[in-house]
Automatic annotation (TrEMBL):
Protein name as it appears in the record: Methyltransferase domain-containing protein
Keyword Transmembrane applies: no
Gene3D superfamilies according to UniProt: Vaccinia Virus protein VP39
Database matches in InterPro entries: DNA_methylase_N6_adenine_CS (IPR002052), RNA_MeTrfase_RsmD (IPR004398), SAM-dependent_MTases_sf (IPR029063)
Any one GO BP annotation for this protein: rRNA methylation
Gene Ontology molecular function: any one: methyltransferase activity
KW Zinc-finger (keyword) present: no
Source organism of this protein record: Hallella mizrahii
Amino acid sequence: MRIITGIYKGRHFDVPRTFKARPTTDFAKENIFNVLGGYLDFDGITALDLFAGTGSISLEMLSRGSAQVISVEADRDHARFIAQCMKKIGADNNLLIRGDVFRFLKSCHQQFNLIFADPPYALEQLTTLPDLIFEHDLLVPEGIFVLEHGKDHSFESHPHFIDHRHYGSVNFSLFR
């Protein structure tokens, strides 16, 4: 896993083979971040990474200038790996929360410029995520929510849907 661009550009992290989480491919990550660059300036934003997995997205957001990134990951080993990666780059503006994403969303009272969710594609509640984000008012005005998902889901009829991108088998739906 590597950081594509920004202040930590080119840094590599070896993801343990035992991990269930699959980091977003470099190709898909680079492309979706290029798309996001057209919607927002990463410099100084507050971001939320749900189902943080390996921390790849959190690291990329920090590298591109996010002032604060909150990473939510339930798995103990994955959370430990994210903490180690953050320590390696010396990032002190990442708040790692080890816990259930749905519980976090229901109790969160902060708003974010960018929310990125990369849940397991087979997650039963995957389709409820856009509604939860907007019901709990977690985005600032003009904020963006990105949901990574498999090809079996379409969110184009959602009232906050603005864009869909796919790179190979990776799909991203964007909401505002």
